[in-house]
Amino acid sequence: MSRVLTAVLISGGGSNMDALLRASAEPGYPADIRLVVSNRPDAGGVAKARSRGVEAIVVDHRPFGADRAAFEAALQDVLAARSIGFIALAGFMRILTPGFVSLWRGRMINIHPSLLPRFKGLDTHARALAAGDAEHGCTVHWVTPELDDGAVIAQARVPVMPDDDAHTLAARVLVEEHRLYPKALADAVRIMDRSAP
Ligand code: GRF
Question: Residue 71: how many CB atoms within 10 A of its CB?
């Protein structure tokens, strides 16, 4: 299969994006990550992408105010102008409208720091600790209109230690995220390519 032109969407430090960029540089990796888009000008991931020679563009959501569709139209213009065929959300913190999600259905994935369907939404590590869970982890899933609800592609599990706080647990999960996401993105792109009409 030819490599699929892929964009990574970020809002912050981009550690998952960086793991994906490292994988994309490997020969034979099925996703060709040509673009990083951040909705925040101050995202640390923008500089990380540029330091790896990958185009990074900021589409600041703030000027659009509550008009999510207008922000997404600007985002879509950037993606379409580069013939992007697949999206990996990596620490992207904007809720996407059903319209944008349906446009990218079957071509957009996300990584979430919990063992979905447990702990959809935010503050997953604190919630796992509060629930007294013995294990926690991360999930890569297809993006659907319902938040953190799409079919699971891959998961990784970590033990919750007795002396964990949200910070130490998050750090243990993040290590697994960086291992899980590159393989899950490759699997997802291959699945999409096989199901293409
Ligand atoms: C990670 O826990 C990721 O699962 C969540 O945002 C956190 C930071 O991700 N979506 P990154 O370092 O910006 O990739």
Answer: 22
